[in-house]
Design goal:
about 80 residues, mainly beta, three-stranded antiparallel β-sheet, 1 helix
């Protein structure tokens, strides 16, 4: 996982919420694109409901799970 991978996830339209699984087994959800920031080596996730900020090194991100698929536009 790297900065470009997460940039694509955060800029996707429609945005699809996702969960980051760390190598320690801890998980963090990114529910809105504005709740994450990228640096060269880290993903910063905010949780406004819990008033919490977590900083995740890309090296420790084991996987990413999409929470739901975007709906296809109606024709």
């Amino acid at each position: 996982m790297n900065q470009e991978y997460f940039r694509k996830l955060l800029n996707a339209r429609p945005f699809v919420p996702f969960v980051v699984h760390l190598s320690s087994g801890v998980t963090h959800a990114v529910r809105y694109p504005g709740c994450a920031a990228l640096t060269r080596t880290r993903l910063v996730i905010t949780d406004p409901d819990a008033d919490r900020i977590v900083v995740c090194s890309y090296l420790h991100i084991a996987s990413v799970e999409m929470l739901h698929q975007p709906l296809e536009p109606a024709m």
